[in-house]
Automatic annotation (TrEMBL):
Source species: Alicyclobacillus fastidiosus
Family: Belongs to the carbon-nitrogen hydrolase superfamily. NIT1/NIT2 family.
Residues covered by the CN hydrolase domain: 227-482
Name recorded for this polypeptide: Carbon-nitrogen hydrolase family protein
Pfam families listed in its UniProt record: Acetyltransf_1 (PF00583), CN_hydrolase (PF00795)
Ranges where the N-acetyltransferase domain occurs: 13-211
Gene3D superfamilies linked: 3.40.630.30, Carbon-nitrogen hydrolase
GO MF annotation list: hydrolase activity
Lineage, highest ranks first: Bacteria, Bacillati, Bacillota, Bacilli, Bacillales
């Protein structure tokens, strides 16, 4: 008799993190679980997975998703106890997720009605508890529905109803389960979920305490998170060798380091100064010769970033790749690592004189001072790019620019300040001044470098952290505070990031690689 194949009897139940390919199935699950409530939007679930993937779980049984839950981390002390679901979840997009917070907040748990006696909810709650232990979080907080309350609303108040459920005199499918999971009722919230008719919009604020929590963890409350920025207003003048360029660049980096800067930002295509000794009159050929200095340029800035212990946004430089010329900005971290951002929009002038090709990806970079983005000159005039960068976590947008007249400069400046207001983000512009009389299409320069903040009480007056005098060889140094920025996004006079009508409109980034 052959060995019995027991695998054909298996009915595997799998708990795992949610993936993008699960989204449509989870939306359908929501319709089955809560037929009278609005289901998840795809953009909301995509946001969950992008921002906090380890906090999103689902249960798969026989190749079907039969349960799911979403969560985020918050510092709950910053929220009103009588918060609503929309406030605590950022309207379901969890962009207020705080990796340095103390509390895991449960956004939602769903279990397919056909599979409700398989301990699926228990598995999901256990996954959250294990995550809280792994991340050393103080507690898990949830806003729990009380879906049977509508049957008793004429007989008792919500508080009396909760008390009866706690005594096991009344069974509530959500509250009774959460009590068994070790959650304690803290208070009752009104208008928590207005479309939850079964609960009459009431919810119980409940908490599970992590007894393994270690108060002396790596996380401490920050009164401030200052970041010092130096924006260079670079003088374009004739030079006779790369060594002269090296000397001028090192001078600015040294100045930034002497001021204790965390970042120093150089202007767009300031390496065209090298063309003043290349003696090539045709602009399209001159930039191809300029691109041969790419290795020396990268070596120079990598060395300076490490030696002077400062993160450098190395302006931008023309780079040849596969026969095409791109305008590329590099981030040289002070730990010696390098990232790059291609210019997304080429100006008519760049296409006409230099034949510049355009990049297709919007990057946000991790640094030792938080997440940043780089948007080169013309790119800042397209508001969608800044919005996408901030949605990806950027707190500072660096804008290397090169303009030849006041009108062009003001377009960059006004748009940088607008982006700071629209997205509650710091923006930094760094431009070139002077002239290159020996270089075609780089005749004159106009700039006034500056550092800008959102316009609110917590920030600098007029939203200007600092700015150079126009058209002179100098730098501006200013401090921005990422903790103030974080708090302003949660509780400022206006909260553009939270108050966007995502039900009405949204910005979507296409993946051209898959088209």
């Amino acid at each position: 008799m052959p060995e019995l194949d027991i695998s054909k009897y298996e009915r595997k139940i799998i708990l795992r993190n949610t993936r993008v390919e699960d989204i449509e199935e989870i939306i359908a699950l929501g319709r089955r679980c809560f037929p009278n409530m609005e289901p998840w939007k795809r953009a909301q679930l995509e946001s969950h997975i992008r921002i906090f993937p380890e906090g999103q779980f689902c249960v798969e049984f026989e190749d079907r998703i039969v349960g799911s839950c979403s969560s985020l981390i918050v510092n709950f002390d910053e929220y009103d106890d009588q918060h609503t679901w929309n406030v605590i979840t950022d309207n379901g997009y969890i962009r207020n997720h705080d990796p340095d917070g103390f509390n895991l907040y449960g956004v939602e748990v769903m279990v397919d009605p056909e599979y409700r006696r398989m301990k699926i909810g228990h598995r999901l709650y256990d996954a959250r508890k294990e995550l809280a232990r792994e991340l050393n979080l103080r507690s898990i907080i949830i806003g729990g529905r009380i879906p049977n309350y509508h049957k008793y609303k004429s007989q008792m108040t919500p508080r009396e109803y909760v008390a009866e459920v706690e005594k096991h005199n009344i069974y509530d499918p959500v509250l009774s389960f959460q009590i068994l999971e070790g959650f304690a009722v803290k208070r009752i919230n009104t208008q928590y979920l207005p479309d939850d008719k079964a609960s009459e919009a009431f919810a119980t604020l409940m908490e599970w305490h992590n007894i393994d929590y270690r108060p002396k963890s790596r996380r401490v409350y920050r009164a401030s998170f200052p970041v010092r920025i130096c924006a260079v207003q670079y003088m374009m003048k004739k030079i006779d060798s790369f060594d002269e360029f090296y000397t001028q660049v090192e001078y600015y980096v040294n100045v930034a380091a002497d001021f204790g800067s965390d970042f120093v930002c150089f202007p767009e295509i300031f390496t065209t100064q090298l063309m003043s000794f290349l003696e090539e009159k045709r602009p399209d050929q001159a930039i191809r010769r300029l691109s041969t200095y790419t290795d020396q340029y990268i070596d120079l800035f990598t060395e300076l970033a490490v030696r002077y212990n400062v993160n450098i946004i190395g302006g931008s430089h023309f780079v040849e790749e596969h026969g095409d010329i791109f305008n590329v900005a590099y981030l040289f971290r002070r730990d010696g690592t390098i990232e790059k951002q291609y210019k997304i929009h080429a100006t008519p002038n760049e296409r006409k004189w230099w034949g510049i090709e355009e990049g297709n990806e919007i990057h946000v970079f991790d640094t030792d001072c938080g997440k940043i983005a780089i948007q080169i000159c013309y790119d800042i005039e397209f508001p969608e790019l800044a919005r996408i960068a901030v949605d990806k976590g950027a707190n500072i947008i660096f804008i290397p620019f090169c303009t030849d007249d006041r009108q062009g400069y003001l377009r960059v400046r006004y748009c940088a300040q607008a982006r700071a207001v629209e997205n509650q983000v710091y923006t930094v512009i760094a431009g070139t001044v002077g002239n290159l009389t020996h270089v075609e299409n780089m005749d004159i320069q106009y700039a006034q470098s500056g550092i800008f903040a959102p316009s609110d009480f917590a920030f600098a007056r007029d939203g200007i952290v600092g700015e150079c005098d126009a058209n002179i060889d100098t730098v501006v140094v200013g401090d921005v505070d990422l903790e103030i920025l974080r708090r302003s996004r949660n509780s400022g006079s206006v909260r553009q990031l939270r108050d966007r009508r995502r039900d009405l409109y949204r910005v979507q980034l296409k993946d051209l690689k898959s088209d």
